[in-house]
Amino acid sequence: MKLETPLVVVNCKAYSQAVGKNAVELAKACQRQSREFGITVAIAVQPADVCAVAKAVSIPVFAQHVDAVVAGAFTGSVVVESIKHAGAVGSLVNHSERPLDLATIKRTILRLHDAGLSAIVCAGTPEMAFEIVKLNPDVVAIEPPELIGGNIAVSQAKPEVITVTTARIKRIPVLCGAGIKTKDDVAKAVALGSEGVLVASGVVCAKNPENALKDLLEGFAK
């Protein structure tokens, strides 16, 4: 699936605010705001929530992780076939909270592509992003791990991380993430060359997640 940009990916992680029925409600809020702004908003949910969320909305639904194994005797593994049948259009790969080596990243991307699914691959540094792009992902998301979950956005704290990455990666979209919480964070990221953002706590843990997402989307018009 080709993902249209600008693109916002809301990562639910394992926050209680976005598990089970809460994941469905958050996905519906994402869909409303996506339609309101005409901007692609995708949501990455727990494997057990993919089916319910995908049935409830038409926005892109991603798994947060998938294992690079073929279907078979791999108890506890999340296989590509399971997320596809549940309705996911792809998976996040190599998030800093679920890091993989390059060989595993390559196998995971290949497994996703073989199933017709998309791979949004995270990188902690520009150097890692340059290695990852050689593996043919659909999207690269640059996220310095030390800023994830913090109060200072990567676009404010380390703008050079974005500009160095976007200057060299041209053939696929580059997103940025880590600490993105306001429309000003988004506007700065776009000005630095990012084609979208990957967000989590700034939306999921907000008092009003839909309002928080609306504020972020306004940043694309600044």
Could you explain the architecture of this structure?
- The chain is globular.
- It is of the alpha/beta class.
- The mean pLDDT is 93.
- 40% of the residues lie in helices and 16% in strands.
- Helix 3 links the parallel strand 3 (61-63) and strand 4 (90-93).
- The protein has helices spanning 21-37, 50-56, 80-86, 102-114, 126-133, 154-157, 159-168, 183-191, 201-204, 209-218; strands at residues 7-11, 40-45, 61-63, 90-93, 118-123, 139-142, 174-177, 196-199.
- The longest helix has 17 residues, at 21-37.
List keywords for this structure.
alpha/beta, 16% strand, 222 residues
Q: Count of DSSP helices?
A: 10
Biggest sheet record: 8 strands, parallel, barrel
Radius of gyration over alpha carbons? Answer: 16 Å
Strand order of the largest sheet: 1-2-3-4-5-6-7-8
User: Spans of 5+ residues with little confidence (pLDDT < 50)?
Assistant: none
Q: Structural class of the helix and strand makeup?
A: alpha/beta
Summarize this, please?
With 222 residues, this protein is an alpha/beta fold.
Show the helix and strand layout:
Blueprint: E1 7-11, H1 21-37, E2 40-45, H2 50-56, E3 61-63, H3 80-86, E4 90-93, H4 102-114, E5 118-123, H5 126-133, E6 139-142, H6 154-157, H7 159-168, E7 174-177, H8 183-191, E8 196-199, H9 201-204, H10 209-218
Helix pairs in contact: 1-10, 5-7, 8-10
